[in-house]
Amino acid sequence: MSGLSRRLASHLRRYIANRRRTKRAHARLDFTLSFNDPRLSSNGSRRLPSLDGHTLDLSTNGIALVVPAIRIGEHYLVSGERRLHLKLELPGGPVELNVVPVRYESLEEDPLESGYLIGARIVDVNEPDRPRFTEYVRTLLSRQGS
After folding, report:
1. Could you tell me which of 23, 112, 19, 102 has the C-alpha nearest to residue 65?
2. What's the pLDDT at 139?
3. Which of 23, 106, 118, 131 is buried most deeply by CB count within 10 Å?
């Protein structure tokens, strides 16, 4: 884990009181985040507003997201029990998840990152993607000696 990753993870843990139940694996993966699952959109031609970012770490039930903004349009990403749709780019192809943000913080004081760090709970993995996602996380954890 790099110095930046350690600082960010340590900073986030301070805010969430280290309530993790499972080990997290460091991984920088690109993703696209939206409020609605595009597969459920009634109008396939209408592009849903989204936000691109990257992960900091992940487990089978949680994920740390780095995003350039805390809103999509006029709607905050972190409010109530808002479910967000995440299209995560794994090396073997994308997987789709639904997450609920639990914490966030600004990265304005970090010289190497900008935007916001969001800690989110994974509430659902698209059924066809679940085995690939789970295996990817297990492989990362075994490589990192966790």
Report:
1. 102
2. 94
3. 118
CATH code, domain with 33 = 2.40.10.220
pTM, entire model = 0.78
HSE toward the beta carbon, residue 59, CA cutoff 13 A: 11
The residue behind tokens 């295996």 is: 135
Instruction: Tell me what percent of the chain is helix, strand and coil, each rounded to the nearest 5.
Output: 25, 40, 40
- The whole domain housing 104 covers 3-143
- Which H helix or E strand runs over 57? strand 50-58
Asked if residue 58 lies in contact with residue 95, where contact means CB atoms within 8 angstroms, the answer is no
The Cα 84–Cα 98 span in angstroms is 6
Q: Which residue shows structure tokens 């597969």? A: 39
What is the torsion angle, in degrees rounded to the nearest 10, for the CA atoms of residue 107, residue 110, residue 11 and residue 88? 60
